[in-house]
Specification:
By secondary structure, the chain is of the alpha+beta class. The protein contains nine helices and eight strands. The longest helix is centred in the middle third of the chain and has 30 residues.
Length: 268
């Protein structure tokens, strides 16, 4: 619930607070955390399930200490064990954290450019990445207007009906791009949605030629979007778009936004 804080730690003994504020406390590593991360890093380097003795060999930790660390990580969901006495491997929870960290790095790179667009047009600016056949919103700056269109971070939309998705997919390798186009029936979001694979291929070709993706009321009635790809190390990694209510949208504004997107440095 927004605005409610958890006070469950308020009953900790006062000496804990005093110890935390003592000289050098902030710079002294907590031993069990050091061991836990050493285990996680070692298992990531191993890259496959490993028995206790192998993890002990790589980490240099005593087997008794290592067993306790591993069992704690299993309880927390960061490590899985194959059977009660089998090998250990990292869980998907670790990879989820890694993915979020990469997305956070990407977001920090692109946010300054998003703010440039927001200041110029005062329309909602979105940042998204491809997630299978979906585009996943990882950041948004909302327009400061009485009427605006805002999609919160964490939302997913279909790639084929959004400027965000099209801007990414258009710049994928041909084989990967075509696999997405033909993966299944293209869902109609509105009466205007492009749902023919051949028509979508033509749209994506136009995106590559133009440098930007456009859609007017194909994903949501009353909303137009224009997006451009974001490249990381020479490969398309994400896209940025502006969402504009159709009562403010015009072909001239669309061209102005497209030109602004092309001017941005979205290669990192």
């Amino acid at each position: 619930m927004t605005g409610v804080t958890d006070d469950s730690n308020s009953a900790l003994p006062l000496q804990d607070d005093a110890a935390a504020e003592s000289p050098g406390a902030a710079s002294k590593p907590i031993g069990v955390l050091v061991k836990s991360f050493a285990v996680i890093e070692a298992m990531a380097d191993l890259g496959e399930p490993a028995p206790l003795r192998e993890v002990a060999r790589v980490t240099g930790l005593p087997k008794g200490t290592l067993f306790r660390v591993l069992q704690t990580l299993v309880q927390l969901g960061y490590v899985n064990q194959i059977g009660k006495t089998g090998s250990y491997h990292l869980s998907s929870k670790v990879y989820y954290l890694g993915r979020n960290a990469r997305l956070e790095d990407l977001k920090m790179k692109v946010l300054p450019q998003m703010r440039v667009l927001h200041r110029r047009f005062n329309e909602t600016v979105n940042l998204g990445v491809l997630d299978g056949i979906f585009v996943y919103y990882i950041a948004a700056i909302e327009a400061q207007r009485a009427l605006s269109w805002y999609v919160p971070a964490g939302t997913r939309d279909m790639f084929h009906s959004t400027a965000l998705g099209r801007a990414i997919v258009a710049h994928l390798p041909e084989e990967q791009r075509d696999a997405l186009v033909t993966r299944g029936a293209l869902e109609s979001r509105t009466a205007r949605t492009t749902i023919s694979p051949d028509a979508l291929r033509a749209v994506l070709a136009g995106v590559r030629d133009d440098g930007v993706a456009r859609e007017v009321e194909e994903n949501d009635d009353g909303v137009a979007c224009i997006g451009a790809p974001v490249f990381l190390d020479g490969r398309v990694a994400a896209s940025v778009s502006l969402s504009i209510p159709t009562n403010r949208y015009s072909a001239e504004l669309g061209d102005e936004v497209a030109a602004a997107l092309r001017e941005l440095d979205l290669r990192f």
